[in-house]
Amino acid sequence: MASMDPRPTAAQRPIHLKIADDLRMEIERGELREGDSLPTLEQIRERWRCSTNSARGAINLLKSQGLIVTGRGKPAVVRTPPGKVVRSSDRHQAEKDLAAEPEEQRRTVGEAETNLGMSITHQRFTSAYDTIEAGTELGDLFGIAPTASVLRRHYEATDEQTGHLLSFSTSYMPVALVEANPALLDERNEPWPGGTQHQLATVGIEVMTILDKVTGRMPTTVEGQIWGLPDGVPLLICRRISLDAEDRNVEISDATYPADRTELRFITPLQQWTQKPDDWNLGR
Amino acid sequence: MASMDPRPTAAQRPIHLKIADDLRMEIERGELREGDSLPTLEQIRERWRCSTNSARGAINLLKSQGLIVTGRGKPAVVRTPPGKVVRSSDRHQAEKDLAAEPEEQRRTVGEAETNLGMSITHQRFTSAYDTIEAGTELGDLFGIAPTASVLRRHYEATDEQTGHLLSFSTSYMPVALVEANPALLDERNEPWPGGTQHQLATVGIEVMTILDKVTGRMPTTVEGQIWGLPDGVPLLICRRISLDAEDRNVEISDATYPADRTELRFITPLQQWTQKPDDWNLGR
DNA sequence: GAGTGGTCTAGACCACTGT
DNA sequence: CAGTGGTCTAGACCACTCC
After folding, report:
1. What's the Å distance between residue A64 CA and nucleotide D18 C1'?
2. CATH number at B10-78
3. Contact predicate A174/A142, CB 8 Å
4. Nearest nucleotide, C1' to the C-alpha of B7?
5. CATH 3.40.1410.10 fits domain A85-265
6. CA-based max dimension of chain B
7. Predicted confidence band at A109 (pLDDT cuts at 50, 70, 90)?
8. The predicted structure's pLDDT at residue B114
9. What percent of chain A has pLDDT over 70?
10. Could you report the per-residue pLDDT of B54-80, keeping only the tens digit for each?
C-alpha cells in the first residue's frame, strides 16, 4: 500500500508545508504557548534557508487553520481561543414557559438578554421586518405556494465599541399564519415581550417541537470583517424549524455563529425502558 | 463614523482582495456556475494587470473560503458542494429502543449501517480499545479521580478505494463502571450487537439523557489529508455525553465530521402549555 | 527609527492534465 | 507537448508597532 503512494519524499515536499509542520509541532509540544511570538520571517528564512515568500506561505497556512494570528508590525503569535458562549436547546422550553406568563412577567425578561455575557449597554440591537415572496425553498418548507407572502424578520446585535456583529439571525413566517394579529407585522413592536413563541400564541399557534439543523462553512471576506473574525475561524450555520401540534412548519429561523466562541448544546431526553434488556446487569 | 474609518481607499486596497471579490461576485451572480473554470493565472494577470503571485493570492483566498477547488494542470473550478449526510438526534432514541430488543433482533442492525449512504462493502471499519488515566478533564466530567482508569474506544471507517476517512469517533467510559462485565473491555467483541446503550445495560446502566455539544474549527493539514477534504472546509466537533437516571455521566464520545457533507439535526420536543397564554388567539 | 509583517514584481523551474 | 497550476527565489516598497 505504501509503495503505491505517489507522495513526494521528504526532500521534495514543499518547503512551506515543512515549515508549517515544524512550527505546529512546536506549538503542540508546548514549546510555543498561547500568546507566544513565532519566529520572524527573517528568522524563518535563516532557519529553513528559504525565501520570504516561502516563509509567508507557512505563516499563511497556520493562519488559515486558525492556529496563529498576525498583524502588521507585530510578530505572529499563537492564538488564544476565546471562551465559548453556550447556546443551549433548553432555552426553547424556557421561552415557551415564558410565553405563557402574564405580560408583566414577560416584560422583565428582555430579548437582548439572550445575547452573550456582555453588558447590554455596549450592544446595539436592531430589527427589521419585510414581506417577501416565499420562493420554492421556503414554499416547500411551509407547504405554501412559491408566490405566497412570507414575513421576514431580521435581527442583529453589534458591539458599539468595535462595530462587530454579536448576533445575527433571520426568521420567516407565512403571512397567512400571522396576519390575524396585525401587530405582528409591525417591527415597531420589537422587542416583543415573550418572544416569537408568544407572538405565535396570539394567533392561536402552540409550538410543540423544535428542529435544529446545524452545519458549518468558512466566512466570506465580508462576513469575516463584520464579525471581526481572525482568519481560520469557521461559521456555524443553524436553521431552526418550529413545528406546531399538527407538525406544520410555523417558523423558520436562520442563524450564524462564529465557531471559535460558540458552543451549541442540545439535550435529548430518552424514554424509559418499559422492559429491561434480557441481559440487564449481567455483572452482578 | 465613516470619516474616522482608516480603511484604505479602493485604489490602495490589496489587489488580490480586489481580484477575489470580483471573482466571487461573478460566482454569486451566476456568471460562473458550479463546475465552471475560473480564469487562468495568465488571464488574471492580464485582466487585472498584476503579477503571478498576486493572482495566486486571490486564488488561494477563494480556495481557503471553500468557494473553489484547484488541482495541478487543471484550471481552478467553482466548487460543487457534496450532498449532506444527515445525522439526527432521533437516532439516540432508536438506539435505546434497539438495545432492549432480544439479541437476534439486535444482530440484524449492524453498527456500520450508521455510516452514510455508502455501500458497506467499500468501507473498512476498525475499532481499538485501550485503557488510560482519566486526567483532569475526563476526571472532572465523570466525577472520578484523575488517576482513575478510563476505557477509551476508538472507531473509524475508511473508504477502501480512496483511503479517506468516512467516520471517526472516540468514546470514554470509566473502567469502574463497566468492569463488572469483562466482555466490555475486549475489542474483539466489536461490533457489539445493540451498540453502546446495550453494552451499558449489561452492567445495569440505563441512559436517560444525551447531551450534544457542537462547535467547529479548521482541520490541520493532516486531518485535511486523511478526510480527503478540499481547502476551506471546516470540521464539526461534537462531544456527546450520556447521562443515566441519576444524571451521572456514564459515557463521553467525541466525534468529528466534515462540515461540507454533514448536517447535524437535533429535535427538541416541548411540553404542552398547561394554561394557554392570556392573549391566546387574539386574532379571532 | 529599527523591526516587523503585508503587498507586489518578474521570472524560473517543476508536476500534472489533456489532447 | 502545450497549457496550467504549484513552488520558489531575490529583492523592493509600504504600513504599522514599539521603543
Report:
1. 27
2. 1.10.10.10
3. yes
4. D15
5. yes
6. 74
7. low
8. 52
9. 90
10. 999 999 999 999 999 998 888 899 999
Q: Is A37 (CB) below 7 Å from strand D?
A: no
Question: Is B221 within 8 Å of A21 when comparing Cβ atoms?
Answer: yes
In CATH terms, is domain A13-78 a member of 1.10.10.10?
Answer: yes
Which among B53, B65, B201 has the least Cβ separation from residue A280? B201
HSE-CB at B185 with a 13 A cutoff on CA atoms is: 15
Neighbours of B133 (CB within 10 A): 12
Residue with C-alpha cell 415573550? Answer: A194
How many other C-beta atoms are found inside a 10 Å radius of the C-beta of residue B84?
A: 14
- pLDDT, average across residues A130-155: 96
| Residue numbers of B between 84 and 113 with CB closer than 8 Å to A | 84, 89, 92-93, 96, 99-103
Q: Judge whether residue B149 has pLDDT over 60.
A: yes
- A177 close contact with B: CB closer than 8 A: no
Asked if B272 has any chain A CB less than 8 Å from its own CB, the reply is yes
- Spell out the domain ranges in chain B: 10-78, 85-265
Judge whether residue B3 has pLDDT over 90. Answer: no
**Disruptive mutation site among A268, A276, A279 for chain B (greatest number of B CBs within 10 Å):** A268
Helix, strand or coil, per DSSP, at residue B233: coil
Angstrom distance, A69 CA to D18 C1': 18
In the predicted structure, residue B113 carries a pLDDT above the cut 60: no
Copy the grid coordinates of residue B222: 493532516
Burial group, residue A177, by CB count within 10 angstroms (0-12, 13-18, 19+): buried
Q: B203, A234: Cβ pair inside 8 Å? A: no
